[in-house]
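Schema walk-through. Below, the input block comes first and the output block second. Nothing else is stored per chain. Lengths vary across the set, and this one has 230 residues.
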Amino acid sequence: MNQFERTALLLGNDGIENLKKCRVAVFGVGGVGGFVVEALARAGVGELDLIDMDTVNLTNINRQIIALHSTVGQYKVDVAKSRVLDINPNINVNTYKTFFTAETKDEFDFSKFDYVVDAIDTVSGKIALIECAQSAGVPIICSMGTGNKLDPTALEISDIYKTSVCPLARVMRYELKKRGIKKLKVLYSKEPPIKHEHQEIIGSTPFVPSVAGLIIAGEIIKELANGKRT
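--- output ---
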């Protein structure tokens, strides 16, 4: 008996072995990224790089898997690492208390990664991350906006140029086209953002970011288990 035997029934023993050999970098360990990390660890990915400079805040508790009253004030990457190692003591976890930007990108060797997850918030950071991954020939999947949304069934995987409705995706399409980037796998929602009285604050729920993270993780796990890097 081992902890991955139920997963092996679906992915096969070769799939589990493939996952053990893979290294995935998750940039942003919040509402979406935290659930990506959770699923990757439970599926048996062998090495994770967690990049986030933030600490857990009280307002994170409504949606982030690492956010508890007991973890408020702690660095998110430290909390995530502790949780991951409790799930799988054999996993290698590298943490970086870094805000990823064009200025900090040289801290990372993208050629070491088998997959990159973009779960950060800034457009400039996303663009820098995409350029780094694509220059290194490493597959990347990017999360578009999950805030101000209530319908997790509206989430789907697509190419950035086939997206609609999502305001962040619209900005990204424009910026990527200017840079000659012809394709990008993204997770986005066709649900129009909900307007509320405090427009300067983005509303969120426990069930939209979490589903987004799990969909992203599922996409990665299936590809890496099959030995594919697309």
